Amino acid sequence: MLRLASIPIGLMLLVLGALFWSGSGKARKADFTFINRGDIITLDLNLMSYQQDFRLTYAIREGLYCPDPETYEPIPAGAESHEVSPDGRVWTFHLRKSAKWSNGDPVTAHDYIFSWRRFFEEPGEYTYLFYYIKNAKAYETSYTSGEPIDIRSVGMEAVDDYTFRLTLNDPVTFLLDLVAFPPFYPRNERSMTAFRDFNDKPMMNLVGDYLAKQQKDIKKLTQAEILAELPGFAAQNTSADTKAAVAKMIRYGSIKHTYLNEYTRPPNVVTNGPFMLTEWEFKRRLWLEKSPTYWDRDAVHVNTIEMVVNDNVLSQFLQYEAGTVDWLADITTDLASELRARGRTDLRASKAFGTAFLTLMCKPQLPKSIFNGAKNPLADQRVRQALAMSIDKKFITERVTRMGEEVATTYFPPGTLPGFETLPGLPFDVAKAQSLLAEAGYPKGKGFPALPILYNSDNPTRARIVQVLKEQWKQNLGIDVEIESQELKIYRNRVTEKDYAIAMVAWYGDYPDVSTFTDKYLSTSLQNDSAWANMQFDQLCDDATKEADAAKRMLILQKAEALIDTEVPIVPLYHYVNCSMRRDYVKGIKENPRNLTVFKGLRLDKAGSNGAN
Q1: Predicted pLDDT at 7
Q2: What was the pLDDT predicted at 18?
Q3: What is residue 366's predicted lDDT score, i.e. its pLDDT?
Q4: Distance CA 485, CA 457 (A)
Q5: Which of 109, 393, 461, 522 reaches 20 to 30 Å from 92, CA-CA?
Q6: What is the full DSSP assignment across 118-172?
């Protein structure tokens, strides 16, 4: 536990000195400096799922709509207006002709189609959200099989450069919230062509050589431009296999490829938001500058923003205290509870639209890295229920987190969405937990393997929680677990790749609808880290997408959410309280349940504030 009073003055001076010498004390100072929730994991829209990545993306990119800086409701951004058909299935967006990329190119409907198509051809964490679009899932499945259906059959159409039409399978009442969410943002294809990585490299090297003879550089051509050149290439090639491969590319209108991560980094990255990412020093800082091409640049009041990378909780706080940082976007509950006791008014705490929980691997076999892929006891629902019911969560909220968090028996945070009520989850009941474990073949924990419980090493709160869990499970069930900490990116990859048994994780709702929680655990979702599959759950979620009556839809989703709570692919621990530190002169960053940050609304009023606490 971090105790501020126990930090020696000498240590403070040493840490602060080290910070300045490491570069964060450079002569050049941004208008606004902050420390994010953690280091950036990725700025590739296909791959991102962590809050710190989304936070920065809201600054440098923009979609058809974006969150309002005051209300966080979706408002026109890349689109200036839209129309909806009477049946709610066809949405027509009229794009803003003044919207430009940071390289000066106009932002067109084709940029949205290009970016969204990437989610079907290179499925990512949020590909499942695109399944609301007609034939999106069918195209993804067919593309993966090697025989894609015509991309024009997917319900997204560039009527012209500035008219973008969507056709949905069923009405989606929260579509504007979705298109304001980063996975739905556009990308500039031409700026990415140099970082394209073709699946069939030998073939495309031949195509590149052919184009070079025509004074054309394959690294500067879009996919459509390359496809237009392929008939000429095939005509000059005598190989039957080559002709067949080219004919297939032309027939399907697609050349399989992915993109190297360099396209997301300066000086290569091209964006369309209020700020541009101009510098990225690995594990040190990211530097943003106001975009001169942004359509609404007069509404942007800050010229430069620096995101300092610092994973050490103590030095983060000391930087803030020294005045080198204006905002700590996220602080540990250890620190927050102590600062609250001291009466610090620059501590900001608010109820969150998020839940801390354990994710449990539900596959029949453990991953190869754990007991060489032995039989997985967590595949038995009774074991998962026993683990959940043997945890005294109140002890965690009162003795570890200590910020008034609500004990969680449900995945969805109750009372955060009008019109939706959760059903009761599993209670704390040690006797029942012991009985369930015995039924599963592990009486008093005998024969139960010492599974590892994984967490990210930069989070001291999680470090204390896993220790509590280890002690409670030993006392209440007679089982042992091993504690395993990993650096954030390794931890994230392990969870995403399902290379774990038990892990400490969390989920914040991405948009104000129950489906932002339930859809994560569809059997087809790449976000489903537990590999839990329940056909009844999938069907309920599908039924909810087709239900036009809002009240009936909520009841369907209530049943779906209850299946998660009772079959326990996850163990809810507590519902979050967002904690941050922000100086009084920082305006336009408002505490909110979804923890959204809209840097476009940022203002600094140092003249009207003492800038202290």
Answers
A1: 52
A2: 46
A3: 98
A4: 5
A5: 522
A6: HHHHS--TTGGGGGGBTTHHHHHHHHHHT-PPPGGGSSEEEEETTEEEEEBSS--
> Per residue in 528-549, pLDDT tens?
999 999 999 999 999 999 998 9
Closest C-alpha to 102, from 270, 266, 268: 270
* CA 5 to centroid of chain Cα atoms: 36
Token digits for 495?
């969870």
- Partners of 65 in the beta sheet? 76
Looking at residue 24, its pLDDT comes to 46
Distance CA 413, CA 258 (A): 37
- Tokens describing residue 283: 């594990």
Helices 313-322 and 333-341: crossing angle in degrees, nearest 10, is 40
Residues 567 and 384: beta-carbon distance below 8 Å: yes
The one-letter code for the residue type at 520 is K
The pLDDT assigned to 19 comes to 52
Residue type, 493: N
| DSSP codes joined into one string, 574-609 | EEEEEEEEE-TTEES----TT----GGG-EE-GGGS
For the chain, which ranges sit under pLDDT 70?
Answer: 1-27, 608-613
Task: Count other C-beta atoms under 10 Å from residue 611's C-beta.
Answer: 16
